[in-house]
Amino acid sequence: MATTEPKKLPTLPVIENPTRRAAVKGGFATLGAAAFVAAVSPLRQAAKTATAAEFMQKHYAELTPEQKADVIARLEAEAAEKYGAEVTIADDRPIPGTKFVYAINLSVCNGNGKCVEACHKENNHDRATNQSYIRVLEMPKGTMDMEQGSTTYTGTVPKDDKFYLPVQCQQCDEPPCVDVCPVKATWKEDDGIVVVDYNWCIGCRYCEAACPYHARRFNWKAPEVPAEEINPDQSYLSNRVRPVGVVEKCTYCLHRTRRGKLPACLEACPTGARVFGNILDPESSIRWILENKRVYILKEELGTKPAFFYFFD
Amino acid sequence: MSSASATESHITSYPKFVGRSLWLATEGSLGFYAWMTMLTAVFLVGANAWANQVAGGMIGTNMTDQVSWGLYIANFTFMVGLAAGGVMMVIPAYLYHDRKMHDVVIIGELLAIAAIVMCLMFVVADLGRPDRFWHMMPFIGKFNFPISMLTWDVIVLNGYLLLNLHICGYLLYMRFLGLKPNPVWYVPFVMLSIVWAISIHTVTAFLYCGLGGRPFWNTALLAPRFLASAFVSGPAFIIVAMVLIKRLTGVVGLDDPIATLTRIIRVTILVNLLMVASELFTEFYTGGAHASAAKYLFFGLHGKTALVPWTWTAIGLNMTAALLFLWPGLLSLRWRPLLVAACAMAFVGAWIEKGMGLIIPGFVPSTLHEIVEYVPSQLEWKVTVGIWAFGLMVFTIAIKTALPTLKQPAEH
């Protein structure tokens, strides 16, 4: 076929001359580039809300104390500007000799959902989506198969033939979410709490796919919280209002628990089903429960080694 | 066609080569300009949709905390396969010394380049914070290597892109200089690219199958299945591309490579179906909670059936394509349209199987066994089609650049 007379290809008549042709090509390239700039112009809107300081900010572990102070001052100013709320953001660090664990008495939990609500308020979750780190499953008695449970139950609780299984971050000792993060934006702290640097997360949501307990949440949009409802007691790694496009999770309310208080979900629980404490303290009630009750963990076969226990009376 | 002397320094001749390539790539018929204008327009729609997604947050997608990966990651997974599938031209050419394939193997390598570019774009489109992409760069950011499989994927995908850019760039540049390519500078890289092609799809499968909390993905067969379907979709795309190249340009000698690839698909499509069948057997014969995602995919679960039409379409397409490929007459020139149709069916079948049929059921039911369904939003479709248009642009330009080489098969 190559030896036959080459077929005359149709050409654009205006561009027969090579230099003219180059000019026309250049013209179209410019037009294309301009169209591209116009197409991506919404990015300018996004760029307005992001500062250079935020873009350049280093990973939490690499911040010097001065840099940390600067970052926190910036975040506090942002909260005032965006949300109209005066907040204080602390950098609560783990207390040496502390390993926090949680336990829930399933004989007592009646599925009233006060924990879910308290978590929502305490952690400054988006109001519209009614987000919370806790999900309560209503389960038929006689099974541990979550397949048979419901997270969207209604009606008066407790129902006679049901029991209730609250699930939140299990603060695993072998957390799959930490392993999969490509940028080390999430890690396990010395007191057992798995945290996220919301200013380092790239939003790939691999951790969300890896978590077997549906414990992670993504900020599909910027959270909206009315100024008067914002909880002003915040911590950098915990309940400060999260930026859009990053993953967040339960931190056992580290902004409370590292200051000697109890998690918000526990305080809100009207039945006393929730027990929280330092497992390294031999005098703690949590230690007594783990030693004396019939305790089990969720999805043990996955080898995640939760620091979150369930027990029956 | 050499327009630079061989004695000239690379410093001056290489820019000439690039300039010449760009000039060639923007030369063509009215049909070519119409094609490129159409792709540009579609790409711009996608770029605009993506910009809106970045500005407004990913709430514009239909993804949720339950189904946290959707159309983007589905397409990403498929494109990795397309990139890996190009190796099915390299293996006959370089391992089995298929002379006819040797002359046109660059088509597969150029496809790999376009496909990897698309992969990277799909990943970026899926990021909640694309402005923080630099956190993922080794040394500058914090690279969680070797623990996170995603970092492995970053390495193998970019490595594969560089390998293919080098091989194609070197061969075309030598052709431009009118020199015979020195095998030392490309054969070792070609051999490496064979292993590397397998690695990109294996690592991508490991992204999913390493997650214990997702029973649907947590199967050792996932990587081999990925490869089998890649070795269907890649060659299928290349066959169609070659049929078009033959018709639209003066390139000769494409019929034998088309026949070789057809014979390859004949085997790989059956291997792929066999693996799908083995997976379904273990799922459905065993039953239990582990089978619920497969049940949802094939028959629906608790009245939720969003994926059922997808998966049965894929099965229908794959089965029909497999039967067509088994028919010896498909190799005859007379039945070219049927071959193209069979390739299209196999391609779309693999796209569904690796996308909506694999990524989404991994999330349904969720880890707490909630059934939250997912149907891609209009914004997601726009971004996806835009990236496809860009990939086709890259591929068209790459093929255009290589046309002089393809038209005069080199003596090796």
Task: Walk me through this protein's architecture.
The complex is a heterodimer of chains A (313) and B (412). Chain A is α+β, with helices and mostly antiparallel strands and 313 residues long. Chain A has ten helices and twelve strands. Chain A is elongated. The N and C termini of chain A lie far apart (87 Å). The model of chain A has no long low-confidence stretch (mean pLDDT 93). Chain B is an all-alpha fold and 412 residues long. Chain B is built from 14 helices and no strands. In chain B, helix 9 packs antiparallel against helix 13 and helix 10 crosses helix 12. The longest helix of chain B has 32 residues. Chain B is globular and about 70 Å long. The mean pLDDT of chain B is 94. The interface between A and B is large, with 69 and 68 residues.
Summarize the structure.
The complex is a heterodimer of chains A (313) and B (412). Chain A is of the alpha+beta class and 313 residues long. Chain A has helices spanning 18-39, 42-49, 52-56, 65-83, 114-122, 176-180, 206-210, 254-257, 264-268, 285-292, and strands spanning 88-90, 100-105, 135-140, 162-167, 186-188, 194-196, 216-218, 233-235, 247-249, 274-278, 294-296, 308-312.
Mean pLDDT of chain B: 94
Low-confidence stretches of chain A: none
Low-pLDDT windows of residues of chain B: none
What characteristic shape of chain B results from the CA principal axes?
globular
- The radius of gyration of chain B is 22 Å
Radius of gyration of chain A in whole Å, from Cα? 27 Å
Helix content of chain A: 25-40%
Distance between the termini of chain B: 18 Å
- Report the total helices of chain B: 14
Which percent range describes the beta-strand content of chain A? 15-25%
